[in-house]
């Protein structure tokens, strides 16, 4: 129950509902904004800020990540977790949620070899890889946005340079006209004296 109590408190705290909340039917919970969840809620509720570690803990209590559907109302980067006994309206079922006992490995040739990964380890690896892929996709989106911003800035600088050159050409023309005017005045003044 080490994980379940803070998880329950977190989902009951309405100030977190824009970042993490119960799903629409109350049979799962959704992390809507992983960055904000990692930055502000994990340290407050779970004393760390490592999302992959949080997911590993959920796996140890037999929670499963639910695949996002095409009509996912919380966004493509949201994470949905479900456990058969974890429901918004069934506090009595919480006592059924227990940490999984690691399966004993068989050292004889009759079972799995001692070095092959367990289903939990491979699902944790898949979750970690999925987390890394999502992080990389977010970073790529951020870099793309940054490049667009740089392109806009570059275009603005070019526009300012063109305007500056126009102004310089106008000022140069004005100076030429003034020089011509003063030369004519001077030449006209010499003729009349």
From TrEMBL:
<dbReference type="GO" id="GO:0003700">
    <property type="term" value="F:DNA-binding transcription factor activity"/>
</dbReference>
<keyword id="KW-0804">Transcription</keyword>
<protein>
    <recommendedName>
        <fullName>HSF-type DNA-binding domain-containing protein</fullName>
    </recommendedName>
</protein>
<dbReference type="Pfam" id="PF00447">
    <property type="entry name" value="HSF_DNA-bind"/>
</dbReference>
<dbReference type="InterPro" id="IPR036390">
    <property type="entry name" value="WH_DNA-bd_sf"/>
</dbReference>
<feature type="compositionally biased region" description="Polar residues">
    <location>
        <begin position="114"/>
        <end position="126"/>
    </location>
</feature>
<dbReference type="GO" id="GO:0005634">
    <property type="term" value="C:nucleus"/>
</dbReference>
<comment type="similarity">
    <text>Belongs to the HSF family.</text>
</comment>
<dbReference type="InterPro" id="IPR000232">
    <property type="entry name" value="HSF_DNA-bd"/>
</dbReference>
<dbReference type="GO" id="GO:0043565">
    <property type="term" value="F:sequence-specific DNA binding"/>
</dbReference>
<comment type="subunit">
    <text>Homotrimer. Homotrimerization increases the affinity of HSF1 to DNA. Interacts with transcriptional coregulator SSA1 on chromatin.</text>
</comment>
<feature type="coiled-coil region">
    <location>
        <begin position="126"/>
        <end position="167"/>
    </location>
</feature>
<keyword id="KW-0238">DNA-binding</keyword>
<feature type="region of interest" description="Disordered">
    <location>
        <begin position="100"/>
        <end position="126"/>
    </location>
</feature>
<dbReference type="InterPro" id="IPR036388">
    <property type="entry name" value="WH-like_DNA-bd_sf"/>
</dbReference>
<keyword id="KW-0805">Transcription regulation</keyword>
<keyword id="KW-0539">Nucleus</keyword>
<keyword id="KW-0175">Coiled coil</keyword>
<feature type="domain" description="HSF-type DNA-binding">
    <location>
        <begin position="42"/>
        <end position="66"/>
    </location>
</feature>
């Amino acid at each position: 129950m080490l994980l379940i109590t803070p998880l329950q408190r977190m989902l009951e705290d309405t100030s977190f509902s824009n970042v993490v909340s119960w799903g629409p039917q109350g049979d799962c919970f959704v992390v809507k904004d992983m960055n904000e969840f990692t930055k502000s809620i994990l340290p407050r509720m779970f004393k760390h800020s490592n999302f992959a570690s949080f997911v590993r803990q959920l796996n140890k209590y037999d929670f499963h990540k639910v695949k996002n559907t095409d009509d996912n109302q919380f966004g493509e980067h949201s994470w949905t977790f479900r456990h058969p006994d974890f429901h918004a309206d069934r506090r009595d079922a919480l006592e059924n949620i227990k940490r999984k006992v690691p399966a004993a490995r068989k050292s004889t040739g009759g079972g799995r070899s001692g070095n092959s990964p367990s289903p939990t380890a491979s699902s944790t690896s898949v979750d970690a890889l999925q987390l890394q892929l999502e992080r990389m996709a977010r970073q790529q989106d951020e870099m793309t946005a940054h490049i667009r911003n740089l392109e806009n800035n570059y275009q603005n600088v070019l526009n300012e340079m063109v305007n500056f050159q126009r102004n310089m050409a106008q000022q140069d023309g004005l100076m030429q006209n003034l020089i011509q005017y003063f030369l004519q005045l001077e030449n006209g003044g010499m003729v009349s004296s």
